[in-house]
Amino acid sequence: MLLTSLAVCLSASAFAHFQLIHTASSNITDKNSVPFELIFTHPGEGTEGHSMDIGKDEKGSIQPMEAFFSVHKEQKTDLKNKLTSSKFGPKDHQVQSYKFTLDKTTGLKGGGDWGLVAVPAPYYEASEDLYIQQVTKVFVNKDDIATDWDARIAEGYPEIIPLNNPTDMWVGQVFRGKVVDPEGKAVANAEIEVEYINADIQNSQFKGENKFEKAAMVLRGDEFGYFSFVPVHAGYWGFAALGAGGEKTHNGKELSQDAVLWIEAK
C-alpha cells in the first residue's frame, strides 16, 4: 500500500495535536551541543495555529513529564532530570514546553544514532472530554553511522518503528513504518495522522509565513501494522498513530495513547 501526501488532504480545521521533540537538523555531525525543544502544538498550521500546555489536566494543572530518555548503541539513558521548563509561543499565548541539550554531559559521545523518546503526562482535551498522551520519538545521527534507528526503543509503550532510516530520507522517497502496541505487537488498520512543520521555529515560537497551503493528511496502516508515505516537501514530517496503546482510561476518562514518530526529508 502506497499513500502519498496527496492522498487525503485535511482542511485547516482538522489539523491535529502533535508532540514535538524539535531540533534544527537530524544531522548532528561536527556538533558538540544539540538543543532540543519539546512542544505540543498544531505544526501544520504553523504561525496560524495554537499550541497547548504539555501535561495540562482537566483542572488546569500542569503535570510533570512521565519519562524522557535516549537510546544510543542499545544503551538507554534516563534524561528526565535534564529537562528544563520553558515557554513556547508569542507573548500573548505562551504555553508549557521544555528544553534539553544533548552534549557530552547527556551522552553525546562518538558517532551513531540517538533516539530520543518523550512520554508526557496525559493532556485533557476539553472539546472531546478525553485525555491524549503522545509517546513521541525522534532520531538524530552523527557521522553517518547507523546504530539504532530500526530498533524498538520504547519498550512498554506504543511505537512507530521506521523501516527506512528517518535521518537519511529525501523528498520523493517512499518512507515505510510499522505501528506496534505496548507489547510490540502489530496494530492492525491504525489511523495515522500526518503533519508537516509548516513554519520555521525560532526563539521558541513559529516565525515568518507558512510554507504551504496543505500540510496535513490522514492514512491507514494495513492489517499487519505497516504503512507507506512519500514526503513532498523538505523538512520534518510527523506521524501519529492514534490510540495505538489500546483501550485506556485516565482520571476516569478515555485516554488516547498515541505513538508519534518524526522524520526529516532533505
Uncertain segments = 1-14
Distance linking N and C termini: 23 Å
Structural class: mainly beta
Fraction of helical residues? under 10%
* Strands, count: 20
**pLDDT averaged residue by residue:** 94
Quaternary assembly:
single chain
Mind summarizing the main beta sheet? 10 strands, mixed
N-to-C SSE series?
Answer: EEEEEEEEEEEEEEEEEEEE
Keywords, separated by commas or semicolons:
10-stranded mixed β-sheet, signal, DUF4198, 0% helix, mainly beta, ABC transporter substrate-binding protein, 266 residues, disordered N terminus, 5-stranded antiparallel β-sheet, single chain
Reconstruct the topology from this structure:
Elements lengths: L17 E5 L10 E9 L9 E2 L14 E6 L2 E4 L5 E5 L6 E9 L8 E8 L3 E3 L4 E13 L16 E4 L12 E6 L10 E6 L3 E3 L2 E3 L8 E5 L5 E4 L5 E7 L6 E3 L2 E13 L1
Parallel strand pairs: 10-20
Antiparallel strand pairs: 1-2, 2-3, 2-7, 4-5, 4-8, 6-7, 8-10, 9-10, 11-12, 12-17, 13-16, 13-18, 14-15, 18-20, 19-20
Care to describe what's here?
The protein is an all-beta fold and 266 residues long. It has one domain (18-265). The chain has no helices and 20 strands. Strands 4, 5, 8, 9, 10, 13, 16, 18, 19 and 20 form a ten-stranded mixed sheet that branches. Strands 1, 2, 3, 6 and 7 form a five-stranded antiparallel sheet that branches. It has a three-stranded antiparallel sheet with strand order 11-12-17, with no helix packed on it. Strand 14 and strand 15 (205-207) form a beta hairpin. The protein starts with 17 loop residues before the first strand and ends with a strand. The model is unreliable at 1-14 (pLDDT under 50). Residues 1-16 form the signal peptide. This is ABC transporter substrate-binding protein.
